[in-house]
Amino acid sequence: MTPAAETRGRTRGQAEARTAAFRVLQDVRSGAHADRSAAEHLQALDDRERSLARELAYGVLRLRGRLDAELARHVDRPLEELDPGVLDWLRLGLYQCRETRIPEHAAVNETVEGAGRTEGRHVTGLVNAVLRSALRAGEADPPPLDEDPVARLTGWGSHPEWLVRRWLDRWPAGTVESLVEVDNRPPAVTGRVLDGDEDGVESARRALEGTGVEIRPLDEWSGGFRLVEGDPGELLRRVPRAVIQDPASFSVVDFVGREPRPPVADLCAAPGTKCVGLAARREAGSLQVCGDSDRARLEAVGRAGGRAGADVRLVAADARRPALRPASVGTLLLDVPCTGTGTLRRRPGLRWRQGPDRLRSLVRLQEEILEGAAPLVESGGLLVYSTCSLEPEENEEQVERFLERHPEFRREEPEDGSDLPPGVVDDRGDLRVLPWSRGTDGSYAARLRRADRTG
Ligand SMILES: C[S@@+](CC[C@H](N)C(=O)[O-])C[C@H]1O[C@@H](n2cnc3c(N)ncnc32)[C@H](O)[C@@H]1O
Predict the structure, then answer these.
(1) Which of 37, 48, 315, 441 could form a Cys-Cys staple with 246, CB 3.0–4.6 A?
(2) For ligand 1, is residue 273 a contact (CB within 6 Å)?
(3) Domains of the chain: which residue ranges?
(4) What is residue 320's predicted lDDT score, i.e. its pLDDT?
């Protein structure tokens, strides 16, 4: 291929990547999950274009608040009055100018072209004028944190106002700023070797030598690693006893304990990362039930279990009405559906889909799951309640209300010598992994022991 033909091919590929990113934003606007939409629209692109499209779509979703704060200064009406497709193209164009190395003239021209293709030629003048006005003016400094924390953290910090306000009521402004910074950075790929310790990571590292995949141990997190080079799929093929998982998530498995009392049940199990981690610790031959109300997601649990050699029984069931005998479970994990405010960096569209109403309805669902599933725990058995939320209503307040209703349960601290790093267990004995303190996701868990009536 001649250099000119190659350049033309690349330009066409980049145009396809921008359009694919736009399609993802369009789907997310209609309520779709970014990952599912990306899987559909990015599939046909080659590797380079796919990574550009992913960066543009996910970057715009993460920094939407920041981009909108800047765009609002260059549009002569409230942004909500713009056609939503035009607004998404403006965000895509500005993101390329501010956050990537794409030359500004190319970013603007290609955005104008893209908007013309999907929204009609009549919008190109507006898109061109707004982007050029923003470039002429340059980026404005965000308001200082001590003068207007809400404006800074919603604009530059790119988080919805209701969340910023509730976090500012709870934590110092500097802490909230660190949290939004973590949320705005794409996470590294991390995981764990199921056989546990540093030796497990070392043998995985050796098994990967010469494959183009490189991992490094994660300080503080037993068995944890960071993918430095290569493809996660290839890593899992070469090291079947590994899972891709954030430390905040595998710390919940550590919090359950080294030898969970059998039988073990995990009733909100999909996609299965904790379930597989628990199975690796279970007594040989003992039963582990992995349930979820979402049958399609449950299939992922079966695949993850099969790959890691974990023997699990899958049950598609609503944890509010579990189909298991009362007092038949030794260790019950309830990793309930939640707002996921500890994982916003990982799920870039999520912050814009949440709101106080969704929080309230999830708190109700969590309570119903606790009420429905707690009777399964046998006398002396353990219920571990966990979330990837930072909100007290879903975490300690939910647990306190449960303990008021159920005096037969009491909260307890994790076992001595657990694999948890120092500083992640609070004064009550609950697990609390905070994104700004270790650069991980956030997670919460409580250990609730049922009184032993036989003792
Ligand atoms: C936080 S995710 C679980 C993540 C999983 N434990 C892991 O580590 O891979 C919550 C799960 O609860 C499931 N779920 C939602 N409502 C449920 C219900 N009423 N009963 C059982 N599962 C439910 C969702 O389908 C989702 O898979």
Answers:
(1) 441
(2) yes
(3) 3-137, 149-183, 190-244, 247-450
(4) 98
Cβ of 328 closer than 6 Å to ligand 1, yes or no, is no
* 53 touches 37 (CB < 8 A): no
Phi, psi of 422 (to 5 degrees): -65, 150
Assigned superfamily of 3-137: NusB-like (1.10.940.10)
Confidence of residue 8 (pLDDT cuts 50, 70, 90): low
pTM of the model: 0.94
Ligand 1 center to 378 CA (angstroms): 22
**Residues β-bridged to residue 445:** 386, 431
Out of 3.40.50.300, 3.10.105.10, 3.40.50.720, 3.40.50.150, which CATH number does the structure's domain 247-450 have?
A: 3.40.50.150
pLDDT band at 110 (very low <50, low <70, confident <90, very high): very high
From 192, 266, 267, 268, mutation site for ligand 1 pocket: most ligand atoms within 8 A of C-beta: 268
- H or E element, residue 255: helix 247-256
Read off the tokens for 196: 């546990």
Average pLDDT over residues 118-132: 97
